[in-house]
Design brief:
This protein is mainly beta. It is built from no helices and three strands. A three-stranded antiparallel beta sheet has the order 2-1-3, with no helix packed on it. The protein starts with 15 loop residues before the first strand and ends in a 6-residue tail after the last strand.
Length: about 55
Amino acid sequence: MMEKCCYKDCEEDAVVNGIVYARNPEGGKEIPTAVQACEKHKSVPGFFPSDGGDK
């Protein structure tokens, strides 16, 4: 089964794995967080592909 895009309220199938930097709940530096993105959201600023391209 294909994973879904992690972007808020998106129900599209993911096409690429990547990371975003999320706020650390304990304070300090932001932490890298693994996510999946659809075709539309893989271009959002702050998303960094980690697998070199499409699934």
